Amino acid sequence: MEKEEIKDLMLKVDYEYHLIVKEILENDEFKKRMEYKHHENRSVYTHSLMVSIQSYKIAKKLKLDYKSAAIGGLLHDFYYEDWQITKRSGIKNMHGFVHSKEALENSKKHFENLMNKRIEDIIEKHMFPLTIRPPKYKESFIINLVDKRCSLEVFKYPKELYKYIGLKKKK
């Protein structure tokens, strides 16, 4: 089912988008995100693709830096491990507070040639207000809002909401 969703998403964008993100989508480390759950029924890969495509279209329509929006949208959740499997202790170490920093480190490591200040800001601050410092660029705000919109699917699964706010499941 998810492979069909990815195929449908890729059919809805122009050739220029494909050229911009080709290197990322063909990267083996990025492809591992197909195995990481995002919110219940989607992988991090599919979620990131959705954020990237929607942000790319909005930025292009607004005559902003749509290339940075496309790349930043794909890499905003490029963190190290599946957070739903790997548990951390302490509120400061919770996924929502640390994964943007991890995604930025990982992005610089694997895609140094694609990075710029705007993309770095997009990745680092996509979790605002949890990141405290607000986004610096309009493209960063776009990803911030599109990411939240795409993540609203979590409300379709009310029995799973406990884990998204850092609580343990009741026995």
Topology:
Blueprint: H1 2-11, H2 15-25, H3 28-31, H4 44-61, H5 66-75, H6 95-110, H7 117-125, H8 138-151, H9 161-164
Structural commentary:
The protein is mainly alpha-helical. The protein has one domain: Hypothetical protein af1432 (Orthogonal Bundle). 56% of the residues lie in helices and 0% in strands. It is built from 9 helices and no strands. The chain has helices at 2-11, 15-25, 28-31, 44-61, 66-75, 95-110, 117-125, 138-151, 161-164. Helix 2 (15-25) packs parallel to helix 5 (66-75) and helix 5 (66-75) packs across helix 7 (117-125). The longest helix has 18 residues, at 44-61. The chain is globular and about 35 Å long.
By CATH, the architecture is named Orthogonal Bundle
CATH topology: Hypothetical protein af1432
Bulk shape: globular
Mean pLDDT: 82
Rg of Cα set: 15 Å
Whole-Å distance between the termini? 31 Å
How many beta-strand runs?
Answer: 0
Helicity level: 55-70%
CATH superfamily: Hypothetical protein af1432
Q: Class, according to the CATH hierarchy?
A: Mainly Alpha
Largest β-sheet summary: none
Which segments are poorly predicted (pLDDT under 50) over 5 or more consecutive residues? Answer: 161-167
User: How do the SSEs run, as a string of H and E?
Assistant: HHHHHHHHH
Structural class: mainly alpha
The number of helical elements comes to 9
Percent of sequence in beta strands: under 5%
| Count of structural domains | 1
